[in-house]
Amino acid sequence: MNVFEKDSNIFQLLSEGISEGIILVNTSQEIVATNSSAEEMFGYKKNELIGKALECIIPRRYHHKHGGHFSSFMKKSEKRKMGHGRDLSGLRKNGEEFPVEAGLNPFTLYGQSYVMALVTDITERKNYTLNLEQTVKERTKQLTDALEKEKELNELKTRFLSLVSHEFKTPLSSILTSVTLLSKYKESTQQEKRDKHVNTIKSKVRQLDTILNDFLSVERLELGKVKYTIEAFPLSRVINEVVYDANMLLKTGQQIRYPDNVDEVVVTFDEKTLALALSNLLQNAIKYSPEETTIKIIFTITDDNFIIQVVDEGIGIPKKQQKHIFDRYFRAENALLNQGTGIGLNISKQHLENLGSTLSFESQENVGSTFTIQIPKTIKSTTQ
Ligand code: ADP
Predict the structure, then answer these.
(1) Which residues contact 340 (CB under 8 A, 6 or more apart)?
(2) Ligand 1 pocket, mutate which of 345, 346, 349 (most atoms under 8 A from CB)
(3) pLDDT tens-digit profile of 77-103?
(4) What is the pTM for the complete model shown?
């Protein structure tokens, strides 16, 4: 019978009112007394822990270190907190671990040394802290995202304003010139001249329309507002439409070579996205190629994909700038004399990738570029 059993009434009286678990061990690390909070915390019945080794409430992986800590603590014999900033765990009878905090109080009674451990189950506090950390993390991310969006929006606005003043001015002044000249050609014999100016106006209006559409497209992509319609359609319809529009932009002697193997081809995809991407590629091919060159549209079917390529004999893209070509607003240094916004390729690629297809290119400066759209054959008809 140990002293605590002997003095059990006094010990129990003192310890039972405490919500912390009390565990008393002797120098052989044998548990000599507990209160009911400790028994409940570790999942034992009344007095079940008495006589057991202290290690039965410590997870196995700490056993080897624990012995050393215990004896050096006994030697110093002073009151302290356990763990020193380390996370401590207790082991329940059913094998479950839980986080604890423990204070150790050595004392001597009737010539025997003991340690009283005051143990607190800090699961709730830990969860609360973890939840709080998680909430703070989530809120910080939301704020950073919002800030990022705000920054992008500001960048877009600034970009838009500088474009309005730069990219819009040139076509608008050509439109103004053509309109002014048009009013001067009054004779019926001057129809050819009138047609020329009407065509200039049409092409410049188209140019402005493209820039505006690009901006709207960026905004819709940003806001996740894009709706795609996946349907089967004849490939020739899209190519005809895009080539028809592009013809108006051709420079002297430039020609577009149409693929001769698309007549019967039916593609299942979002028709508008394909038209947007293809028209962007074709307009670039025209814009970044000199007069008297040919632009080829090549169509290939593989086992898994439809492949559409636009090949030009133009200025090409400098090697060291190729990795940025799909970045929004990026324009290669050799392209700066031409009008442009650096948006077209970026949005085409994003739209195509949203639908599981790809856009890639190969290019050599002063030789030409090949842009490739690859559409998987297996895209299912849906309206998203
Ligand atoms: P934009 O043509 O309005 O500048 P894009 O996003 O369509 O914007 O193209 C981004 C950049 O990629 C261009 O500014 C140009 O530097 C380069 N580029 C695109 N297509 C071609 C091409 N066919 N030949 C050479 N450079 C090209």
Answers:
(1) 167, 287, 331
(2) 345
(3) 666 667 556 788 999 999 999 999 988
(4) 0.59
